[in-house]
Amino acid sequence: MPGTLRIAYKLLVNDRAKYGALLVGITFAVFLMIEMTSLFSGVLARSSATVRNIGASIWVMDPAVQTVANSIPLPDYVLDEVRSIPGVAFAVPLYSGSALLKLSDGTYQAANVMGLDDTSLFGRPALTEGKIEDVFAENGFIAVKDSEFYKLGNPRIGAEFELNDNRGVIVGIAKVASSGLFGVPTLYTTYSRALQYIPSLRFTSSYLLVEPKSPADIAAIKARVKEIGYLALTKDEFIAQISNFYKFHTGIGTNMLIMTAISFIIGLSISGQTFYTFIIENIEKFGALKAIGAKGRDLVLMILFQAGFVSLTGFGLGVGLCALAIWTARLYLPDYAAIITGLNLVLAFLMVLIIAGASSYFGVRKVLTIEPFDIFRG
Fold it and tell me: What is the pLDDT of residues 352-361, one digit of tens each?
């Protein structure tokens, strides 16, 4: 380390009070920024859990659908039209609805019921217990073991419940890639059984799941579906549409943005004020260095090093603290949705760089205007 940077480091860490205040301010700001953005990322990921878990390449839906949770039933002829489109390998209906279950202990529990195509069971989850063939047995249902599984009473294979005076039996336990957003457990069964057990409207298909013969056929399939008055989206496009809905058409995105901005302002104000005070209190030392031959760029480098060092240290502490908080919360709160993504870290890092730059700016201006004569005259 060059001598000037070694001096800058000692000046910084020897003033433990100011150094600690700087670290606390930046760490707290980073913690809040990552916590808010991670919570938002978790909400967005869970909002499209059904799309991720089913895994179909193309979803056909009514053009008015904005999120997977609010489906609009499709007329029966749409399935035949889609199956006749050149380039379609196969297309199957998907039922998605809500039901009120009466559990074996007499309590009632709301649940999402997914009805899979009877022939192919396309979109079925991976089982950890039981056999997928058993879903064809009388009253067979598969329970998803996610963060909401306990609300079903942690059922085992053979557990029974009632759904609209119909007997249901858990024949399998499944795992999925993502838990749902709304705190409701999920059951899978066959399409015909879902229609039999749950009252439906005139049209019963919530979505059509389509697999193209090749990726090159996707554009033609989407265009043909649009011609018949419906919308076809790829898996990624549907996930993006759902995310945009929660970002721009609900209060979630706005509230998270405001909290992130407040966190940034807190970190900027605390670190900026504290760092400027640190420079003022050590102005004599910078003047002495200038008097013995240190150039302006050396002093600027020292200040930038101090601001960068404390900012990066605070960034690391903030990330670690946030990761610890999320891990602890998940131990006791299964529904906790926050996830730290690379984008969250990059966003927080850029904000920390802005905080470091703004904090050092005023210190640099003050140091460059100091004259050694004024220091030694006192």
Answer: 888 778 777 7
